[in-house]
Design brief:
Blueprint: H1 2-37, E1 41-45, H2 57-71, E2 74-78, H3 86-89, E3 94-98, H4 108-119, E4 123-127, H5 138-144, E5 147-150, E6 155-161, E7 175-180, E8 184-186, E9 193-199, E10 219-226, E11 232-236, H6 248-261
Parallel strand pairs: 1-2, 1-3, 3-4, 4-11
Antiparallel strand pairs: 5-8, 6-7, 6-9, 9-10, 10-11
The structure holds zinc ion (ZN).
Length: 270
């Protein structure tokens, strides 16, 4: 009798142990599936209001879609401001505004959704003319980090890499030889962390004595990152021409910007 009891007891113990192993395996499978499903989701947004519209938009979208594909990120492209509802926008990890300009939203409600998204910890990437978007909305300028003022003619100039310790600049040398529109902005948010700056000595421009003048000495910020009002933002003023979106250094620059906003684990390519 005592032996029978002992054997039944050890049977129960084995069953409990097997059950525990089964539960642990199930949890591990569930957890790893959850990790598999945790794909970044990117919105590529290109809406322009009345005014100058860049001809680089299709090329920039193609480039950004390829960056998403390469990294296994989901993406959706839109130039329709009606996507800015709380429900639709909350599924995105980063909103990439590519060459939007002038009125970028149709209604105040859409602006409120965008602001709430950022305040809820959302990610924002701005490329080139995005600094000319929403020219009557100070919060938008602060979120981007600055507001467009003017640019000299498209020309070659030197870009000084201020900080290499960012995935958007780690692949560049000390000086990046570049040809573009050199944007000058005001309303610069003092919290921006500058990554790239133009060497003003290399710019031919009659107007630069009026603005930016001597505000920043020899250099003027062109690309930065920051964390503003609960969100995480990266902006580059570069990227005027269609060909830029086929340039390897520029593609890495954009990819790195999105990765920084996504808090992707930074690895030094060297
Ligand atoms: Zn441009």
């Amino acid at each position: 009798m005592e032996k029978l009891c002992l054997s039944a007891y050890s049977d129960i113990k084995v069953k409990i142990r097997m059950k525990t192993v089964f539960i642990v395996v199930c949890l591990l499978v569930l957890f790893s599936c959850d990790l598999c499903l945790a794909k970044a989701n990117i919105l590529i947004y290109t809406k322009n209001g009345k005014g100058y519209v860049h001809d680089n938009i299709d090329a920039s979208v193609e480039c950004l879609k390829n960056i998403c594909k390469k990294n296994g990120w989901d993406c959706q492209v839109s130039d329709d401001a009606s996507i800015f509802t709380k429900e639709k926008i909350s599924k995105f990890d980063v909103l990439v505004f590519s060459n939007t300009n002038n009125e970028t939203f149709d209604t105040q409600q859409q602006r409120d959704v965008f602001k709430a998204y950022i305040q809820g910890g959302g990610g924002f990437v701005g490329i080139h003319s995005v600094c000319g978007s929403e020219r009557n909305w100070p919060w938008f300028w602060a979120n981007l980090g600055g507001k467009f003022v003017r640019h000299p003619d498209f020309q070659k100039f030197d870009v000084k890499v201020i900080d290499h310790d960012n995935p958007s600049t780690a692949h560049l040398g000390e000086i990046w030889k570049w040809e573009d529109e050199c944007y000058f902005m005001n309303q610069l948010n003092p919290d921006i962390h500058v990554l790239l700056a133009v060497d003003l000595v290399t710019i031919k421009d009659e107007g630069k004595k009026d603005y930016p003048g001597e505000v920043f000495g020899q250099y003027f910020p062109l690309c930065w990152c920051h964390e503003f009002d609960g969100g995480r933002q990266w902006y580059t003023a570069l990227g005027h021409s269609i060909d830029h979106y086929k340039d390897e250094n520029f593609k890495k620059h954009l990819e790195g910007g999105i990765k920084w906003v996504l808090k992707d684990i930074y690895t030094d390519p060297n």
